[in-house]
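Recap from last week: sequence in, structure out.
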Amino acid sequence: MLPSLLALLFLGSVTAYQRGAPITLCYDPYPHHHAFRSEEPLPYTIQLDKQTYNPGDMIKVTVSGTEPFNGLQIAVHTLNGDWNTLFGEFMNYSQALQAYPYYDNVMNCLTHSEKSVNTNSEVFYWKAPAVNYGDLIFSATLVKSFEVFWVNVTAEIRAASIANVITPPQSTIGYGSFDSKLDLSECGKESGCITHPANCKEGIDGDCMFAVAYMPVSGGVRFRLTHYKTEEQSSYMALGISEDEFMDHDETFTCSQDGTSVDLAHGYNPAMYNIKVQSNTTTNIAVEVVDDSLVCEFTRPETSSFNYYGHTGLDTHKIDYMNGIRTPEHHLYVAFGERYAGSHSSVVKHHILPIVSTSKVSFGDNSRHSFYTLALGVKAHIILMAISWAAVAGVAMVVARYYKDGFLNSTDRLWGLKPWFQVHRILISTLGILTGVAFIVIFVHYGKINQLVHAACGIVVVGLTTLQIIVGIARPDPGTIKRTVFNWFHRLTAISAYILAAATMLIGAKIEYMNQTMQTSVFGLLFAMVLLPVVILIILEIIGCQKDESSPETQAKSTNGMQVEEKEAADPKGVPSSHKTSFAIFITFVVAMTALLIAFIIVVAIL
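Predicted structure tokens:
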């Protein structure tokens, strides 16, 4: 996630891609600006010096507007063919532009080459293909600013002759047929499947959200993706196939609709982002929207390879599912969200965590599996940190601040020392161990720094915790100037660590990949757990201020309010009422904190 986050931070500061639109957008030129196309009136046009073409003709193209544009991408497609096929060749363009050999090793995709073009007009030439492909269309994306852009700015060019027209490659999407063996009712019999929720039922009254069905067929694996009750006209469901629990260096299949058409796009994740790939190996593609459910079905060969354009240029990825048919080798991921209006197949980055198969699946196994949302390592990290900082730290602070004279009597002893000191020491040691384990668990799970802000704050918290423990072990003797400095430093460091830990946890609860239910429930419980110790501290502070300043116990502590002494004050006769009250408050606090913690663990465990 770190590369993706850094990319977002970088892209947010520019008006267009620094070195031009990436070659991967030649297939579907929708800018990856994390924004929707502009609905403002279009200020740009594409003008051709000829309205018809013969094979090999040179056509002058002028892209101009009443306002400067900072980004440009243009390609030529057949009117009714596959957008993966580009036609002709761009030539004689300015130094502000660059061309890509996206299709058939010809410069047929043109974009800007600098940070921004910043011009009202660009003129270049397009050389028609060597054969007559019939009527074609220029389609451009024009960027005014990072947030304001237009897609599908078009100009048609007709074939000068209807004779000797070569039929261009046609899209195979939608020409396949559905196999009834992949119906959910056949899962466990003729096919295997994964559903969310587990054991859900399909149909108008069903509770299924997603289903992935699969079965081996001759030479490959057939899949069906079903997004039930999509509600949105522009929506998508994407399947990722991975050998581990991280969707990088893995292929994807995205089934999407825009209200008028359904598309299946083959993609690849070079890292934590997705690109479209040039591939014709996915066959027998069937798509439909029925009863508000989006359905895509296709066959994937057992072995194949495809080309993709990464940061280092053209690369090849090889796929081998032969063993996966017989043995569980792959996790299945499902992401979902909204498709960009006006795009061919570009989708909005999923705003919640993808759901992942609870275990690896075998494509030849007719079992029914289920998905999970939060990985076990992530759950362990969340629960351990919540126990450490929302529960243990709060109790440790309250004990150290208000129970130095014992919980009921100032003569109380625990292993030879005052109870507050022993309890505080045990709690802080526990906090340090749990925090360290939680940090190690999440790092081992991801294998790298993830969620930059949250991770950076967490690292500082671990550092402050370690410092607190070391300083506590080396505390000076009572009654010295060093002890006074120690007391101030120890308290300020503790407060800083607690505030930062609370902020870090609340930031984590609002990580964008968690869905709204997760964010609301986890954030609410964490906030209550963090706030409760603060409320108790305020209540006990008020009680302390109401004590008689001349009382023996108060005078015994008046030498230095910051000191942490093991000396006991004069033993009062009986149990002061203030002790009884504060002890009752403490017990109530611990019970309430325990209840909140149990509720928190239950909520996180079922996510």
